[in-house]
Structures are given as C-alpha cells and as structure tokens.
Amino acid sequence: MAIQLIIQLVILMGGLIVLPVVVGGLFVNAFSGEKRFREPFRGEVVFGLLFQWVSGQLCLWAGFHILCTALILKGENFDAVIKSYGVLVVSLLLLAAAGEIRRGAVYTRPQAHAREHEKKKDWMPVVLWCLAGALLVLQLVLAGVLAYEEGDDAFYVAISTATESSDTMYQTLAYTGRHTSFDARHGLAPFPVWVAMAARITGIRTVTMAQIALPVVLIGMSYAIYYLIGKKLFPQGARQVPMFLIFIECLVLFGGYSTYSAENFLLVRTAQGKAVLASIVIPFLVLLLLQLLEDLQESHKIGRAYWALLALTAGAGCLCSTLGNLLTCLMLAACGLCILVCYRKWKELWLMAGCCMLPLGMIFLYMWIK
Amino acid sequence: MANSSFLIFGKFMGTGLMVTWFLVGLVYLFLSEKNKTRRILFIYMPVLILLLFFNPLFNRIFVWVTEEEIYFRLCWLLPVILVIAYSLVRLLEGLKGKRQLGFGILAAALIAVSGKLVYSSPLYSRAENIYHVPDSVVHICDAIEMPGREVMAVFPEEMLLYVRQYSPLVCMPYGREVIMGVYNRLNEEMEKDVADLETLAPLTKEALCHYIILPAEREILGEPGEYDWEMFYETDGYVIYRDTSFPLTY
Fold first, then answer.
1. Is B124 on the interface with A (CB under 8 A)?
2. CA distance A45 to A110
3. How many CA within 13 A on the CB side of residue B179?
4. Structure confidence at residue A104 as a pLDDT band (50, 70, 90)
5. A17, A46, A110, A370: which is deepest, by most CB within 10 A?
6. pLDDT tens, position by position, B24-68
7. Where in the sequence is the domain holding A7, given as residue range(s)?
8. Among partner residues A147, A151, A342, which is closest to B176 by beta-carbon distance?
9. Chain B contact present for A248, CB below 8 A
10. Residue A222 CB-half CA count within 13 A
11. Per-residue model confidence (pLDDT) at position A110
12. What is the pLDDT at residue A48?
C-alpha cells in the first residue's frame, strides 16, 4: 500500500511538475533570437524554473483542449483522448529536448546583482520569505485537511469520476448517472476530463485527485505566478517581492468577503476549471501583458515564442471554462486598445488578435452548437 | 440592464471594503505611478473593463450569448489583489526601518479586517477521509457497489452532493437539482419525518431503485417486507434497504 502510494505520488510529481517544466523549456531555450526568455536563467534559477513550469502546463492544457474537444465532438471515448494526449506529450518533449540540445545549458551563472544582495546580509528578506513560505504551506496543508461543502463539485467532480470510470465523455448526467445528450456549455471546456486523465494516469482515485492532489499543485502554481509578477514589478527588490507575496497571500486568505471573488474560488473550488481560469490563466496573462508592454516601451523585439505562449495561454483559458474564451479575448482586446492609444502600434494589435483565434473559434462553435 | 450590472457588482463586492481598497489603489497609482506600462496594466485596463461591465449594451449581448448568473466573472479581469498589493508595497518602499515594519503589519491587519477569512466559512469542516466526502457516504457506497454494473439508490438530501463524486457506479433517481429547488415527488417523500411506505415504496419502485437509504432514527410507517424491502446493512446512523423485486444480475 505504501509503495503504491509512493509510486502514485512520483507519477503525480512527474506529470504535474517535471513534465511541464521540461515542456516549458520550449519557451525558454528553443528560440535563439529571444534572449529575454533566457535572461531569468542567468541569475534567477527559481524564476526560470517557475516560469517554465507554468508556461509548460499552460501549453499542455491548450494542447489537451484542442485534442479533447475535437474527440468529444467526434464522439470518441476517453481512452482515445489519453492516447492522443500521449502522442502530443511525446512530441512536445522531443521538441523541448531538441531545443535544449540546440541552445546548450545557460542555466546556472548567477548575475552580479544577485551576488550583491547576498553580500549585504540583510536579514529582513529572509524573515519575509519565511513568512511568505509559512503562509503558503498553511494553505497547502489546509487544502488537504479541510473539506468544503461545495455544490458545484457535485457536478464537476462527478463528471471526472464518471469519465474515468465509464470511458465516455459528457454522455451521462453528473448528478444522477443517467444518459444524456451532449452538453455544449460544459463539453466545450473539458477541464474535468483533464482531471479524470490525471487520475487515470496516476492511479489516484478521481475524487482524491480533485479534492486534494490537484488543489495542492494548483494553489502552488497560482502563487508561483504571483511570484513571477512580483519579480517583474520589483526586479531589484529583495524585500519588495516577499512583501508583495505576503500581501497577496493575505488578500487571498481574507478573500471570503464575497463568494464571487477569484481569491475565494482559488481556495474553495481550486480544481474546478473556472477557479483555474481566475487564479492561474488570467494572472499569467497579466504577467505576459506586463512583459509585452515593457518590451514595447523599450522598443525590444518581441519574438515568436512570446506570441506562441500568449496564444497558448488564451487556449488554456478555453479548457477551463466556456467563459474563458470571452474573458481572455476581452483582456487582450483591452490591452490591445491601450497599446494602440499609447504606442500607436498596429502590428502588435494584429498579432494579439491572432492569439485570440482559438477562443473566438470556440465562441462561434459554442453558439453554433447551442 | 444597467441596474442588474450594479446588483451583480454589489454581489461581487460582498462586504465592500476590499473592492474599495482596490479603487483607492487605482486612484493612488493614477496619482503616483510614473511607469507607463504599469499605468496601462493597473489603471487604464481595469477602467476599460469596468466601463465595459457597466455598459448596458454589452450586458445585453453577454446575457444573450451566455447567461446572467455568470456575468460577475467579468470582474475576475479586474486585478483587485494585484493593485492592492502593488500599491501597498509602493507605499512601504518609501518608508524605512520600524516605520516600514509597522505600516506593513498595519496594512496586513487592515486586509484582515476588511476581508473575511475564507476558512471561517461554516461550509468548511475537517476532512473525514482522503476523499473529502463524509465517511457515511463512503461506507454506504462501498456496501452497495457492485463491480462491473451500476446500481440505483435513493439517498437522503444531505448525501446527494457526494455520492457520485465518490462512486460512478451508484446512480440516483435525483441529485443536487432538488437542493437547488427542483421539485421531485420521491425526494419529498424521502425527506418527510415519517416514511410512509405505502406512498414511498411505489415511488422508489417507479424509479427502479435497488437500494433505499434512510436515517436510522426515521420513523417508518408500514412493514418493509410487504414491499419487498429487506434490511441490507446499517452504518453511520443510516439503514440501507434492498428492494428484492429488482434483481442485481450482470
């Protein structure tokens, strides 16, 4: 029993942490012209790895979404999704490996300013990081120890459980188990199928995957994104980044002021697609847009990897929720409008519109099916 | 329509203070932030999104395409916690030593007072197992599950949310929809203080229920045997009846 659990946890770590980190290498090393994505690795190994982890996972989600939705509409079974996803994963791993070999390792050289911080021996950042870490650990532990009576879990977790068990997708009513016709609103955003796949591959029972394993990983991923944003906002700030994270953690912990807040969704409905949209996809879009605006401000060249990642992030939003299609498009549209007014740049506007192709396609598909 | 936007935004605001701090943060950044990129991301974009949110035409199109009850999710595009945290750190940057520490603690306390601890919700409880499902549901499902085939069972309301999360092999004649207000005659009979088998049993048979789960303390009117019900198992304060008129063969 203990050995089985260890094996399951190793597979879980491999699938949800190691695999995305490796795939995320596509956005760090694979494009020779884009030093920007390699920069973090020169001085900030943690930043680089976290960036790879999140971008890799979003890439995998976007790929899963395209495959899974196509197979659902084709009436294929769950096994077909797993097999085709396996092909996708192997292809991405080969691409990432090829990119890695082509670029060579650029990971480990610390930057001069990083060393300077060490020399100053300021104890405050250490205290702040310990506090930020303690708050994170508290949330991860409580995600496992506390259970929440969440009505929507009766739908989403039941869909995952039924998918994993019956090998069919969106053909049974979640609440009762009776057969039903295709439900476009939920079927076009098959995040529960991804949960079922994670359960099938690891061998962990679906309900445990949805209620404990995934919340721990996804809460960690959400804070990883806030860390990345903090590093972007305060690049030289040894104290500012942990301060920023502590405030973010406090705001999330005390986000129960409304059941509609994204913070509440992060802690209460962590493994539901809409929570992933609000707490992972949208914050990561903020990070990407921050980078885009900085590059425009400094007239840097924006490479293909950036646009690919932006498009894949929007695609990952489609997996999470049908509304994710609209929200990601709106966010990019709002940013595009600001870019047009502030920088008079048309090219970027068209490229941003190009990144919305998948969500826009999904909106039209939804309306057509509906 | 505009009114409904305000109502929905009011619900999103909840107690209101946190969103107020967000708006205060917007004003502070508008007055103090010099970096153009951050002005775009933390001021102009949120304002654009707010204008869109309160636009009656957009509201009408949104409701036409989707549904009104998810309109609040548009507010997720507002970087509420990012603006508050960024503004606070910017304020703290200008302070030194004990003042910085004191203001930091004060700001964290203000967040705690303005918001509500998510874990203080009465819907939270200590998990009874690694499934986050009540033990009673686990034990009952384990008892009635038959590998390789589905069984139909009717449960009391307090179990409806959990049964199909735990077991895909247990089907139910009704589920969470009855908690959300959808009327179901069988559910009405199941929840009565006294289970009158003369009324209840025909309804469970009509729903093809192999099993009927009732609280052990529930008073039963009638003789179960007369309706082909036999006591199958008792666990965690619930009695499971098996309706033998429906065979469980493969």
1. yes
2. 8
3. 16
4. low
5. A17
6. 999 999 999 999 999 999 999 999 999 999 999 999 988 888 888
7. 2-369
8. A151
9. yes
10. 29
11. 46
12. 81
- Separation between Cα atoms, residue A270 and residue A274, nearest integer Å: 9
Cβ contact A285:B49 at 8 Å: no
Contacts of B98 (CB under 8 A, 6+ apart): none
Indicate the helix (H) or strand (E) that contains A307. Answer: helix A304-320
What Å distances lie between residue A14 and A201, B69, B116, CA to CA?
11, 38, 36
**Beta strands B211-215; B238-243: pairing state:** antiparallel
Option in B15, B119, B150 nearest A177 (CB) = B150
The residues facing B240 across adjacent strands are B213, B233
Token pair listed for B188:
């009405």
Give the per-residue pLDDT at A327. Answer: 95
**Region for B209 from its dihedrals, namely left if φ exceeds 0, alpha if ψ lies in -120 to 50, beta otherwise:** beta
Please list the residues that pair with A172 across neighbouring strands: A179
Longest CA–CA separation in chain A, Å:
66
Q: What is the reported pTM?
A: 0.93
- DSSP class of residue A280 equals I
Give the confidence band of A215 by pLDDT, cuts at 50, 70, 90: very high
8 A C-beta contact, residue B233 and residue B143: yes
Distance in angstroms (rounded) separating the CA atoms of residues A347 and A350: 5
Q: By C-alpha distance, which of B79, B205, B24 is closest to A335?
A: B79
Mean pLDDT of A103-118: 52
| Stronger pLDDT, A338 or A119, i.e. the higher one | A338
Instruction: Give chain B positions within 8 Å (CB) of A268.
Output: 118, 121
Q: Please count the structural domains in chain A.
A: 1
- Which contiguous run of DSSP H or E holds residue B243? strand B238-243
Task: Measure the CA–CA gap between A327 and A363, rounded to whole angstroms.
Answer: 11
Q: Give the distance, in angstroms, between the CA of residue B205 and the centroid of all CA atoms in the same chain.
A: 32
Among chain B residues, CA nearest to A245: B85
Contact B81, B19 (CB under 8 A): no
- Is residue A155 less than 8 Å (CB to CB) from chain B? yes
Using CA coordinates, name the residue in chain A closest to B167.
Answer: A161
CA dihedral A175, A176, A179, A182 (to 10 degrees): -10
Contact indicator for A178, B171 with CB cutoff of 8 Å: yes
Residues of B in contact with A243 (CB under 8 A): 88-89, 92, 104
ipTM: 0.92
Given CB atoms, is A288 within the 8 Å cutoff of chain B?
Answer: no
Closest CA to A326 of A293, A289, A286, A364: A364
Residue A45's nearest CA partner among A67, A21, A64 is A21
Residue that the structure tokens 């559910």 belong to: B187
The pLDDT > 70 percentage for chain A reads 91
pLDDT-derived band at A44, boundaries 50, 70, 90: low
Please list the residues that pair with B221 across neighbouring strands: B196
Q: B171 CB near a chain A CB, below 8 Å?
A: yes
Min Cα separation B51/chain A (Å): 11
Rounded distance between C-alpha atoms, residue B7 and residue A365, angstroms: 31
> For residue A196, which of A221, A213, A179 has the smallest C-alpha distance?
A213
